[in-house]
Amino acid sequence: MKIHSSDHSWLLLAVLVILLSFSGALSSDDKEKKTKSVDKKKEVTYDGTSLIINGNRELLYSGSIHYPRSTPEMWPNIIKRAKQGGLNTIQTYVFWNVHEPEQGKFNFSGRADLVKFIKLIEKNGLYVTLRLGPFIQAEWTHGGLPYWLREVPGIFFRTDNEPFKEHTERYVKVVLDMMKEEKLFASQGGPIILGQYSAVQRAYKEDGLNYIKWASKLVHSMDLGIPWVMCKQNDAPDPMINACNGRHCGDTFPGPNKDNKPSLWTENWTTQFRVFGDPPAQRSVEDIAYSVARFFSKNGTHVNYYMYHGGTNFGRTSAHYVTTRYYDDAPLDEFGLEREPKYGHLKHLHNALNLCKKALLWGQPRVEKPSNETEIRYYEQPGTKVCAAFLANNNTEAAEKIKFRGKEYLIPHRSISILPDCKTVVYNTGEIISHHTSRNFMKSKKANKNFDFKVFTESVPSKIKGDSFIPVELYGLTKDESDYGWYTTSFKIDDNDLSKKKGGKPNLRIASLGHALHVWLNGEYLGNGHGSHEEKSFVFQKPVTLKEGENHLTMLGVLTGFPDSGSYMEHRYTGPRSVSILGLGSGTLDLTEENKWGNKVGMEGERLGIHAEEGLKKVKWEKASGKEPGMTWYQTYFDAPESQSAAAIRMNGMGKGLIWVNGEGVGRYWMSFLSPLGQPTQIEYHIPRSFLKPKKNLLVIFEEEPNVKPELIDFVIVNRDTVCSYIGENYTPSVRHWTRKNDQVQAITDDVHLTANLKCSGTKKISAVEFASFGNPNGTCGNFTLGSCNAPVSKKVVEKYCLGKAECVIPVNKSTFEQDKKDSCPKVEKKLAVQVKCGRDKKN
Question: Where does the record place the SUEL-type lectin domain (predicted)?
Answer without folding.
Answer: 756-839
